[in-house]
Design brief:
By secondary structure, the chain is α+β, with helices and mostly antiparallel strands. It is about 35% helix and about 15% strand.
Length: about 120
């Protein structure tokens, strides 16, 4: 059985931000994203629940376990959105890790953290 067959969608972020990220993935699917055609640049603070400006406010300091929780939450939310998008649009979605784009279905959620921004490539 494929991972896609067992997938259950759940995110912990605002509906508005989820829809904005979905819109960016849609632009990438159509090759018209402003960042790079079929590649979107998604900032981690947009993937968090509620209002968080930890990455945009230079006076903000988040350390230790709080920082780990935020990066884990952002990473998990991005993976969930990308996997759902992949299923609904029957397309391949990849996230850049290091200098390589990796299929979202091959990334383990408990091993992926979004620290600042992620490049997401969409298309067959």
């Amino acid at each position: 059985m494929k991972a896609q067959d067992q997938f259950q969608f759940a995110v912990n972020m605002s509906t508005e931000n989820a829809l904005e990220v979905w819109s960016e993935l849609t632009d990438s699917l159509h090759g018209c994203h402003g960042y790079g055609g079929d590649v979107a640049e998604i900032y981690a603070y947009r993937l968090l629940p509620g209002f968080t400006n930890a990455w945009t406010n230079p006076d903000s300091v988040i350390l230790g376990d709080d920082y780990k929780k935020l990066t884990y939450t952002a990473g998990r939310n991005l993976l969930q959105l990308c996997k759902k998008f992949s299923i609904d649009n029957e397309t391949k979605v990849q996230i850049e890790i290091g200098d390589v784009f990796k299929d979202v279905w091959k990334i383990k959620e408990d091993e992926f953290n979004s620290v600042h921004r992620e490049h997401v490539k969409v298309g067959k």
